[in-house]
DNA sequence: TTGTAAGCGTTATCAC
DNA sequence: GTGATAACGCTTACAA
């Protein structure tokens, strides 16, 4: 059985109150150096570790943060996890992960909640009033505590990059549920850019709801969608994909069709994942600030917990374009 | 303020004892249906949720499991996380992740610990006696509770695959710290296979400790190591890589050197990650049962918690070979 | 300077 | 059938 505070106190010949005060540095009134030493020594000797549950019960603080994501298993999510965990560790908090919003726990189990990738409305609605929730997301709700970036801006940059290279006919590879008239951020940004730059465009997609598809399916869908594109539209010179998986699928379809990249066709991916680095040719891709957002979200949450309730609002981090070898001026070689 | 048991009890006009019994289905003695209904109704009306900390303090059970890994951020780890989380959810447990063994918590914070990828000795040594720890790992210790697979077997299969295709000269792409005489499981398996099949072999590596390198560095190291290989050994026809990142780096070096895959050189990766699927050509790779192991580890841990302490020992799961387009008989085409 | 005692929200052991 | 009441291990007024 682990040593408890009473053991330490007895060992040091003091009361639990004094022991507690010393061990927590809560010395409202001065304590003699001698007893301090005795207590600290006893704690060390007995390998005393305060029971987190007892402490939590009393203080109402678990020192744990929940992290909820429907996309656990996505390499993109793991970047958030890594950053958030490191930050939480730094600040003395634990991270409880869950793919179920109900199960991740609320007050009593965790002190605050980090939500990744779920529509904010759904989250807030199910939470007790006042429970600190911050969402890391690409769909910002200015009314709520959100930190993230704009996928509209990301897609806009992707199209702009191609347009500025001189591409006039650009295909968009999306997902089911992202028909051209849809209002997802990525489509909004896409449409805004093609309109503004006056380029011709067509959307393609295969497969099902983005949340339900496996990564390998995304790759396959990209492959199939690109095949559709190849047999449907002869004049296109640029492709913008919803994510890197889809872009890599397209890369394969293009290679099989004998189209050179970036000679005949330029391709832009999204997320700037490890896939983009490893692709052949290396993929120009949109980099989202997911790791930074994860760390900031933890900071904000902890800050809110310390200082009562800090109304944070909505922080928007910049999205950037990583240019690699899959994009070039149209017809730049062998085209 | 959230409703507590006392509120429910008062609302239903009973004592907390009765309320507790009904709400937990712990009815040693029969309880009148009428009061049962009243209590359940009160609980629903007040949206009563038992305080996990109070319960934990009393029962000594947190219903949380710790998951410790130094490789958080690795897409390979995320497969374990996903499977373990799903299983934990299923069994009513929470998952606390941490990249620090100290911080993930022990008794009082979590009921048991899942350790991924760390040498078992280091783990057990730092844990209080009797605290349930199970390691998911590739380096099995028959003395301890371990579940995993043999990377020696995996590497052996990779070499065997090439040897059976007829390759007689095989290069191994490893990491710094895995010099040919090292005793890491992968090298042991590699050496055993090349000896048994009588094939000529040479090891190559670049970079630093495997635990410290980023994924993109692994890719770069694979690229550089393959370049070393290309300028060093003319007669090789097969490559076995320590992981898929390295294999993809090698693929790039081979392409740049004008070597066709699998026509002139066959390449085998390790982990069968998404990279293997998306590579061009698709990568033959060794698939480890990491997801299954993660789920089983959670099951075992929970089982041990329920039934006192189940001595499990050491379970070894089979490793398999996924054959894709990067391997063929030597000189099978244009070679 | 230090000790006493109340209480955090449960569950469990008795008594009624 | 049901209700007091004592824990669980800790923090913190308040008392001494």
Compile the SSE list and pairings.
2 copies of one chain form a homodimer.
Chain A: H1 5-12, H2 16-23, H3 33-45, H4 52-59, E1 64-69, H5 75-90, E2 94-98, E3 112-116, H6 120-125, E4 133-137, E5 146-149, H7 151-165, E6 169-175, H8 185-197, E7 200-206, H9 215-232, E8 238-241, H10 244-256, E9 266-270, H11 274-278, E10 284-287, H12 290-306, E11 314-317, E12 320-322
Parallel strand pairs in A: 1-2, 1-3, 3-4, 4-5, 5-11, 6-7, 6-8, 8-9, 9-10
Antiparallel strand pairs in A: 10-12
The structure holds a DNA duplex (16 and 16 nucleotides).
How would you sum up this structure, described in words?
The structure is a homodimer of 335-residue chains. In chain A, helix 1 (5-12) crosses helix 2 (16-23), helix 1 (5-12) crosses helix 3 and helix 7 (151-165) runs parallel beside helix 8 (185-197). In chain A, 50% of the residues are buried. Chain A has helices at 5-12, 16-23, 33-45, 52-59, 75-90, 120-125, 151-165, 185-197, 215-232, 244-256, 274-278, 290-306, and strands spanning 64-69, 94-98, 112-116, 133-137, 146-149, 169-175, 200-206, 238-241, 266-270, 284-287, 314-317, 320-322. Chain A is of the alpha/beta class and 335 residues long. In chain A, strand 9, helix 11 (274-278) and strand 10 form a beta-alpha-beta unit. Helix content of chain A is 42%, strand content 18%. The first copy, chain A, has 3 domains: 5-59, lambda repressor-like DNA-binding domains (434 Repressor (Amino-terminal Domain)); 64-148, Response regulator (Rossmann fold, 3-Layer(aba) Sandwich), CATH 3.40.50.2300; 151-288, Rossmann fold (3-Layer(aba) Sandwich), CATH 3.40.50. Chains A and B meet through helix 4, helix 5, strand 2, helix 9 and helix 10 of A and helix 4, helix 5, strand 2, helix 9 and helix 10 of B. The structure holds a DNA duplex (16 and 16 nucleotides).
